[in-house]
């Protein structure tokens, strides 16, 4: 009663659907469909070869393996066989149901097949010579029954607990990996992290093509998942540790985009939403796709300025993502309404999305990963991050800066305009804290309070704005019920400074402003 | 003697005695030997098993040989990984012995016909 359907014909040249660098003399690869992972591996896992995915318990190995199969079956037309040595089929199906995958239906449709191989040493006696041909037959059956192109062995190390003849086991494993290659199936083998080795049983010795290490660690009480391609024979790959995220849509890895400064630049100008500010920026506003930094002390009107820009962008029909790290969505909507900026229509129309969260809750890199994912999904033309200092509070400053660089890089490479709001301490030099990122910033506005003649007034100036003639005036402004209104000139402590020919004096005056009663 | 493979459906076996002569009060041994083709290891295992049975439970045993090359699906029911595997279905509890059974003493221990020595 051999009702296993004959294995379908395999074409000698594997399909490389969707692989952008198919023309290059690269190894044939099998796309995982996992966000970010295909970018890091430049196209996916080595096709027809085994890949080792290792890491400590709970690091996401099983999920990665499962997603590899499911996406292979659903997105790339490659059925998959999941051989589990630990969890039962039912447990596995349960685990991925939360990701919205109906595994049972996929099994019914012949896209997936499961086999739970359980080896219990307590009920096995070893008497004389044996081999693991039973394992091969079961694997062969699973593969042939649905014409599987992808196989997962999770985790084959369980065999080491089941048999005492290590020499035999190792030679059988070697035979197994050869056999899998001969079968031409793309295989993911999971392995538990060892103390000094990548895997407890040294599986990395057998799998030489591609090794991916997953890690889940906590630094300063903030946990981060990271992924690293330890080895990928015959291909270039990213070698960094990449943060990854497990959420309701599965795994997404955050690739560090290498900007290479060859991104497309736009000469299109975007109104800032404040006409007088447009005038300061060469009369036309920001460049599309540029990175704009708005820094200032608390309460100086940074968010309001950002909201103006969002409002103007939405009015042009653009999609905006507003990442708020200090205020809730409703709070922002209410506050902006009080200054005459109504964001509700844009929210209703789906043009604006306000995502509120505290970076500290997730950890820095998770946070960046989430931002990344949100950007991928919404595909916005404008992203506002309010404030970027939220990142600095969430973790180490060095990490935060590096991360922010990545994010800005990423947005730039997408041609997405980025507005970064930064809160600077009152006592510090407003320009000092941004040193780390200033080189990436195209337009830099500073907002600050100026104390003079018994009043606190708000002032705004442009530190830099690449590629345009910009004003060097310090402009006083008001936040009225119609939003930000720039006054014609700044009235400084030593009188009216409206003369562009004396910018140094004006800045010096601003810095000194609070300390002098009068001239 | 040569080993016979069943097709899995019918338990083809080497009956040493017919039901009439079988002692009623003694347990019948239900044994299943999983093989993968007629490999030397499998033939050896079968011959060793037959000899042990004849010696220790003549007329009270039933050996079913399952060739997984012909019926790989049957590997799942008894969780077979190693070949050859002998499964003692009866008397309970279920026992598994892997290997060619060339060490008779250990085979007897595995079948629980001998007490385990440390």
List descriptors.
heterodimer; A: 519 residues; alpha/beta; Rossmann fold; nine-stranded mixed β-sheet; 17 helices; 25 strands; 26% strand; disordered C terminus; B: 118 residues; alpha+beta; Glutaredoxin; four-stranded mixed β-sheet; disordered N terminus
3D architecture notes:
- The complex is a heterodimer of chains A (519) and B (118).
- With 519 residues, chain A is an alpha/beta fold.
- Chain A starts with 28 loop residues before the first strand and ends in a 7-residue tail after the last helix.
- Residues 1-24, 496-508 and 513-519 of chain A have low confidence and may be disordered.
- Chain B has 118 residues and is of the alpha+beta class.
- In chain B, 20% of the residues lie in helices and 20% in strands.
- The longest helix of chain B is centred in the middle third of the chain and has 17 residues, at 40-56.
- Classes of the chains: A alpha/beta (519), B alpha+beta (118).
- Chain A binds chain B through residues 1-4, 115, 117-120, 123-135, 137-138, 140-141, 159, 162-163, and chain B through 7-9, 34, 36, 41, 44-45, 48, 68-73, 75-76, 79-85, 94-103, 106-107, 109-110.
- β6 of chain A pairs parallel with β4 (95-98) of chain B.
């Amino acid at each position: 009663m051999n009702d296993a359907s004959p294995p379908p014909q395999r074409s000698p040249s594997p399909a490389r659907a969707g692989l952008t660098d198919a023309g290059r003399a690269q190894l044939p690869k099998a796309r995982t469909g996992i966000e970010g992972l295909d970018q890091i591996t430049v196209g996916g896992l080595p096709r027809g070869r085994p890949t080792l995915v290792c890491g400590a318990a709970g690091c996401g190995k099983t999920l990665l393996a499962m997603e590899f199969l499911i996406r292979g079956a659903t997105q790339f037309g490659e059925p998959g066989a999941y051989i589990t040595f630990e969890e039962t089929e039912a447990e596995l199906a349960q685990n991925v149901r939360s990701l919205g995958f109906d595994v049972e239906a996929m099994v019914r449709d012949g896209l997936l097949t499961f086999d739970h191989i359980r080896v219990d040493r307590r009920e096995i006696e070893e008497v004389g010579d044996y081999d693991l041909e039973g394992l091969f037959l079961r694997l062969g059956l699973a593969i042939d029954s649905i014409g599987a192109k992808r196989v997962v062995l999770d985790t084959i190390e369980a065999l080491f607990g089941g048999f005492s003849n290590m020499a035999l086991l190792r030679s059988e494993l070697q035979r197994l990996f050869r056999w899998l290659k001969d079968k031409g199936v793309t295989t993911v083998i999971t392995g538990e992290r060892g103390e000094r080795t990548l895997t407890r049983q040294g599986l990395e010795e057998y799998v030489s093509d591609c090794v991916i290490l997953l890690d889940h660690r906590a630094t300063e009480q903030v946990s981060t998942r990271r992924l690293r391609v330890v080895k990928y024979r015959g291909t270039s790959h990213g070698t960094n540790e990449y943060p990854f995220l497990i959420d309701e849509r599965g795994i997404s890895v955050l690739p560090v985009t290498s900007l290479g400064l060859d991104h497309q630049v736009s000469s299109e100008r975007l109104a800032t939403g404040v006409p007088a500010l447009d005038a300061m920026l060469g009369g036309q506003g920001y460049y599309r796709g540029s990175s704009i930094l708005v820094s200032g002390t608390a309460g100086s009107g940074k968010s309001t300025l950002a909201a103006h820009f969002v409002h103007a962008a939405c009015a042009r029909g653009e999609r905006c993502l507003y990442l708020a790290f200090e205020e809730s969505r409703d709070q922002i909507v209410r506050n902006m309404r009080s200054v005459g900026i109504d964001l509700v229509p844009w929210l209703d129309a789906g043009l604006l999305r306000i995502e509120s969260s505290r970076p500290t809750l997730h950890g820095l890199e998770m946070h960046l990963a989430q931002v990344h994912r949100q950007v991928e999904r919404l595909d916005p033309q404008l992203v506002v991050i309010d404030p970027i200092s939220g990142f600095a509070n969430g973790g180490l400053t060095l990490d935060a800066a590096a991360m922010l660089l990545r994010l800005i890089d990423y947005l730039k490479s997408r041609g997405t305009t980025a507005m970064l709001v930064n809160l600077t301490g009152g006592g510090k030099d407003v320009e000092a804290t941004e040193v780390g990122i200033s080189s990436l910033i195209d337009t830099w506005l500073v907002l600050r309070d100026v104390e003079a003649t018994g009043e606190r007034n708000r002032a705004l100036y442009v530190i830099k704005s690449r590629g345009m003639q910009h004003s060097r005036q310090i402009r006083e402004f008001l936040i009225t019920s119609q939003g930000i209104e720039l006054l014609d000139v700044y009235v400084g402590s030593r009188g009216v400074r409206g003369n562009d020919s004396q910018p140094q004096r004006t800045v010096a005056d601003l810095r000194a402003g609070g300390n002098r009663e009068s001239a | 003697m040569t080993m016979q493979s069943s097709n899995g459906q019918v338990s083809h076996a080497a009956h040493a005695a017919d039901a009439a002569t079988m002692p009623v009060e003694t347990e019948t041994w239900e044994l299943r030997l999983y093989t993968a083709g007629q490999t030397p290891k499998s033939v050896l295992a079968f011959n060793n098993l037959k000899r042990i049975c004849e010696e220790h439970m003549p007329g009270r045993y039933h050996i079913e040989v399952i060739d997984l090359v012909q019926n790989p699906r049957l590997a799942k029911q008894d969780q077979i990984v190693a070949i050859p595997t002998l499964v003692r279905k009866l008397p309970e509890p279920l026992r598994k012995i892997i290997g060619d059974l060339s060490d008779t003493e250990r085979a007897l221990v595995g079948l629980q016909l001998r007490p385990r020595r440390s």
